[in-house]
Amino acid sequence: EKSKKWRKRRIVINQEKRGEKGKKRRKKKARRKRRNEKEKKENKEIRENTIGEKKKVKNKRSGTKKTVFLKENGK
């Protein structure tokens, strides 16, 4: 009798934990999405406002290479 109750309680505890983990995951995903949108917007502005040579440089955060424009309009 006692073990049955405990088993039910344990199931409930695990479900609660699962809910918390899901919440964390969603928060992370949202944060990542916002950051990516921001970067995309910045990159688009740079592309529109620049002409001239292109050069591959290392991205500080991810370590991947990305194209950067060396000459800007009006400079």
Outline the fold blueprint:
Layout: H1 2-49, E1 54-58, E2 65-69
Antiparallel strand pairs: 1-2
In short:
This protein is α+β, with helices and mostly antiparallel strands and 75 residues long. It has one helix spanning 2-49; strands at 54-58, 65-69.
Can you walk through the features of this model?
- It is a single chain.
- The chain is of the alpha+beta class.
- The chain has a domain at 2-50.
- The chain is built from 1 helix and 2 strands.
- The protein has one helix spanning 2-49, and strands at 54-58, 65-69.
- Strands 1-2 form a two-stranded antiparallel sheet.
- It is rod-shaped, with a radius of gyration of 24 Å.
- The mean pLDDT is 79.
List keywords for this structure.
Putative 60s ribosomal protein l29 synganglion overexpressed; rod-shaped; 75 residues; alpha+beta; ribosomal protein; 13% strand; ribonucleoprotein
